[in-house]
Specification:
The complex is a heterodimer of chains A (171) and B (457).
Chain A (H helix, E strand, L loop, with lengths): L3 E7 L2 H13 L6 E3 L20 H24 L12 H27 L19 E7 L1 H13 L4 E4 H4 L2
Antiparallel strand pairs in A: 1-3, 1-4, 2-3
Helix pairs in contact in A: 1-4, 2-3
Chain B lengths: L8 H13 L3 H27 L14 H25 L9 H22 L25 H34 L3 H10 L6 H34 L12 H27 L8 H31 L3 H12 L3 H20 L2 H4 L2 H28 L15 H24 L5 H9 L1 E6 L2 E6 L4
Classes of the chains: A alpha+beta (171), B mainly alpha (457).
């Protein structure tokens, strides 16, 4: 049977925290909080967030460094021009371009990492309310149809301004 | 002085999205005027490309003049923009909030404008792709030993990084516009927002990304202006250019002019977009304090450059400095540079009354950049005039109409870019302003209430 989602909208942070507590009491630990402002981590009693973003720039930097070295060494070797009897591979300019390549790789991979770790792109918004970016706080629960009634009751008990359902919205 | 007032999310949306969602008459007028000025510049550039450098005032040995002066100037402006944003993010300076986006966007448009200058300067603009390792057919590759290949690699890295940084930092704001837009704009912002919903995970990643990308971009910022300085520093034939101090000297000069550029922009945003509640005197005060230190530091490097070059008493160096500082019209320009680039701004930035006077800060920031434009001119043109050792090969430079129009139009290009950007995206970050409100509290100390900001470690 397909899961159903409900979204409870709260007009301020204090009532939203009560809603989050009520959901936990009702046995729903995996609910999503949707806000229009960044709140301090753990403000709604959510679990600490784990991610591996710091790995991405390191991988990117290694890739960028490799490309930079290959590009600068390769182009000099492909058109070997001896200047003043010096070696073909001139290290100072190689270091400059390789440095830029390394940093570019780090940035590009970091961007990919941020998008990936933020679970984006998300082609469909799903159950959502535009009032969230106006200051309302949304608590969203996804569960089976048998259990979702308990979550809805918990949100009602916490005095949610409105409760939207994916079943009612046809989402 | 404008005091900070508490704001709701709805008020922040209404105030900061007004320039995006409504279009006042002045906006169209400004776009029209700036568009005309930018078109004049483009026309000059095309005229230059078709007819060659004979139409300019360029003459041997002064083959780098207005266009490359302007290149260094705009690269400098672009650098401090992102530097300011990155340092303020890394140090979690509370007064950064209204300044970061403007600084980052100024970086993008000034860097794009700067990148144009060498494009027109090379003459055969249609062969610009030769600086990229692309020409597989002929087997001739760019000479990586040339500083003119280092520049494109550095600028490409910096521009790409800044655009991506701005985009990622703007995701929450794009989602706010998506939720308010209708018709095709809703689809447009919907695609750009990538399905942002504002989960704690997304907000957490935003915070980490801001710090991480700032930490990566800061070394890029330092490297790019260092590389631009090496265009000059590695040229052993030109007196006044071949100096080891050039990289830090250029970097601190870029910070000096760029942060002044951010002050100019913030004052304009405050007046044009009626952002008094967000851009307050305390922000100009913070920037003024920062600049008074930077200005003194930059002047120290300027003095070092002059003193150490003259210390050896080499005839060529003395001749160059005599031209630069004591010969008409360069002596007049040098005095103007000294007054507008150092004496007036640094003296005035030390005054708290001046730092809290936004109109005064606006005009001083313009002075700084007049001085910094002249500084680049004083390095490049007199240096090249004395490039050759034999006096009969010395030359001079008088700017022609073509490059003067082109250089003048670059100011319109940057302003036009910023104005068009402001029509699509907010120049003051909504999410930062909202975060400031979320974390804002007042505590009672004795008989007064003082603002207290809570912050995550």
């Amino acid at each position: 049977m397909a899961d159903t989602s409900i979204l409870g909208l709260f007009s301020n942070v204090d009532t939203a925290v009560v809603g989050a507590d009520k959901l936990k009491e009702a046995g729903f630990e995996d609910f999503e909080v949707l806000t229009g402002s960044p709140y301090p981590e753990g403000a709604f009693g959510e679990k600490p967030i784990k991610h591996k973003l710091f790995v991405f720039p390191i991988i990117g930097a290694v890739c960028g460094f490799t490309v930079g070295m290959l590009l600068t060494a390769g182009t000099q070797l492909a058109y070997p021009m001896v200047t003043g009897g010096k070696p073909i591979l001139s290290l100072p300019p190689m270091a400059i371009i390789t440095y830029e390549g390394t940093m570019l790789g780090a940035v590009l991979f970091t961007i990919v990492g941020i998008i990936f770790e933020s679970r984006l792109p998300r082609p469909r918004l799903g159950l959502y309310d535009r009032r969230i970016t106006e200051g309302f706080i949304g608590l969203m629960v996804t569960s089976s149809e048998q259990r979702i009634g308990r979550a809805e009751q918990a949100l009602k008990d916490a005095k949610a301004t409105e409760i939207k359902s994916s079943a009612r919205a046809g989402a | 002085m404008q005091e900070r007032v508490p704001l709701t999310e709805r008020e922040v949306n209404r105030d900061l999205l007004r320039p995006v969602l409504t279009t006042p008459l002045w906006w169209w007028a400004a776009v029209g005027v700036l568009g005309l000025a930018a078109s004049a510049g483009l026309g000059s550039a095309l005229y230059l490309a078709i007819n060659g450098f004979g139409v300019t005032g360029y003459n041997r040995p002064v083959m780098w003049a207005f266009l490359l002066v302007n290149f260094v100037f705009w690269v400098g402006i672009s650098h401090a923009g992102i530097m300011l944003s990155a340092i303020l993010r890394l140090t979690q300076a509370e007064w950064r909030r209204p300044a970061t986006r403007a600084a980052e966007v100024l970086t993008i448009f000034s860097l794009m404008t700067a990148a144009q200058m060498p494009l027109w300067h090379v003459g055969r603009v249609w062969r610009i792709y030769w600086v990229f390792p692309y020409d597989f057919g002929r087997g001739i590759w760019p000479n990586v030993r040339s500083p003119l290949v280092w520049d494109p690699s550095a600028i490409f890295t910096y521009l790409t990084s800044t655009i991506l940084f701005v985009y990622i930092a703007m995701l929450p704001d794009i989602a706010v516009i998506r939720d308010r837009a209708t018709g095709w704009r809703q689809g447009f912002y919907g695609v750009l927002a990538m399905g942002w919903r504002g989960t704690p995970r997304q907000w957490h990643l935003q915070a980490v990304a801001g710090i991480l990308l700032s930490a990566i971009i800061l070394p890029i910022f330092v490297s790019v202006h260092s590389i631009v300085s090496w265009d000059f520093g590695v040229a052993i034939a030109v007196e006044g250019w071949h100096a080891t101090v050039f990289a830090p000297y250029f970097v601190i000069g870029a910070v000096w002019s760029g942060v002044a550029g951010v002050i100019t922009l913030m004052a304009l945003m405050r007046w044009l977009f009626k952002a008094e509640k967000y851009i307050r005197a305390e922000h100009f005060d913070g920037l003024g304090k920062l600049l008074s230190v930077v200005g003194i530091g930059w002047w120290f490097f300027t003095l070092m450059e002059i003193v150490f070059s003259l210390y050896s008493k080499e005839a060529a160096e003395v001749s160059f400095r005599t031209l630069q500082m004591f010969t008409w019209p360069y002596n007049m320009l040098f005095i103007l540079f000294f007054l507008t680039g150092f004496v007036f701004p640094v003296t005035l930035f030390l005054s708290r009354t001046v730092r809290h006077n936004i109109a005064a800060m606006f005009w001083i920031s313009i002075f700084v950049n007049i001085g910094m434009w002249l500084e680049r001119f004083m390095i490049i043109v007199p240096g090249l005039m004395r490039k050759q050792g034999l006096t009969f090969t010395w030359g001079s430079y008088s700017p022609g109409a073509t490059e003067t129009i082109l250089v003048g139009s670059t100011f319109a290009m940057v302003a036009l870019g910023l104005l068009i950007f402001s029509k699509f995206f907010p120049l003051i970050p909504l999410s930062d302003a909202k975060e400031g409100e979320v974390l804002r509290h007042e505590i009672q100390v004795g008989k007064v209430k003082v603002p207290a900001i809570i912050r995550e470690a």
